[in-house]
Amino acid sequence: MYRILTIIAVALLFMSPAFAAVPSYKLLKEKSSLKFYAINNNAPVEGEFKDFSTEIEFSPEKLEESKIKVEVTTASVFASYDEVVKNLISADWLAAEKFPKAVFVSKAMSRMPNSDNYYADGTLQLRDKTLPVMLNFQLKPVDDKTMLATGYVTLRRTDFGVGQGQWAKDDVVKNEVRVEFRVVAQQQ
Fold this sequence. Notes:
There is one protein chain. By secondary structure, the protein is mainly beta. It has a single domain, classed as Lipid/polyisoprenoid-binding, YceI-like (Lipocalin, Beta Barrel). The chain has 2 helices and 11 strands; from the N terminus they run H-E-E-E-E-E-E-H-E-E-E-E-E. It has an 8-stranded antiparallel beta barrel. It is elongated and about 55 Å long.
C-alpha cells in the first residue's frame, strides 16, 4: 500500500504543472505608463495618469483562467497645461473628488491565432457608469519572469458622462479618446 501511495505522489508531482495556478504578476510602476490622447479645438492633447495599480493573473496557455484588473486614481491626471488638469478633475469631467477611481475588470481573454496579440473583454467603471470595453494588447517577454504589455482602447467620453454641460457636444473636444498603456510586470 505504501508503495502505491508513493507512486501516486510521484505521478502527481510530475503532473502538477498541468494543475498549476495561473501566474500572478506585480506591476513595475516606474517602467509602466497610462496615457491618453484627445482632440481639443482641432489640436491634439496628450496626458497621462500617474497613479494606477494592477492585479494580473495571466497565462497564454490558460486564457480562460487569466484575469486583469486595473485601478486608476482619477486625480492623478497630468497634462502639459495646468488649466487642462484643473478642468479634467472638475465635476464636469472626471469628477475626481466624487469618483476617485476608474476600474477596468476583464471578463474574458482571447488571442489572435499565431500572434502575440490579445484581447481582454471586460468592463470599465468611470464616474457612475460601468460599460463594456475591449482592450487590445501585445505581449512580449522582457526576461524569464518579466512581461511587457502594450496596447490601447478607444473610448467615447460622453458614454461615461465625461464632459458635461457645455462640454457634452463634441464641437470643441472630440468624443473619441484613445487610451494607451505600457505595462511592465514581473511574475511573483
